[in-house]
Design a protein that fits this description.
InterPro entries: ASHA1/2-like_C, START-like_dom_sf. The chain is of the alpha+beta class. About 25% of the residues lie in helices and about 40% in strands.
Amino acid sequence: MSQKITVSATINADAKKVWNYYTNPENITQWNFADPSWQCPSASNDMKVGGKYAARMEAKDGSFGFDFEAVYDEIKDGESFKYTMPDGRQVQVDFKEKEGQTHVDVAFDPENQNPEEMQKAGWQAILDNFKKYTESN
């Protein structure tokens, strides 16, 4: 398997708010899509080791959609978490606050159906949408 792909963003908010907006299903449904023509109509998050994260992502026109699921392997509350997707790929998310801003790194194992550049662009677009949503709410 290839090396992990990392996407990053610095959010103008403290780590407590950033963690809450990133992990609370009420907020997840507001930002968890890469493009304005998509939506995240539902999300659930059992934030504990062995707990399940699930989000429905779909095109607003109903032409395509999929369920994203994962199980938590490790959680350091307010700092980081790691989860595994059903296909065995892992994701690590880190939150580091400095001077009122929070830097978020998301490192993930790439899948083998799409080019890595496309995967990185998609995950970065979702993280950019998260930044925009968090900073404006």
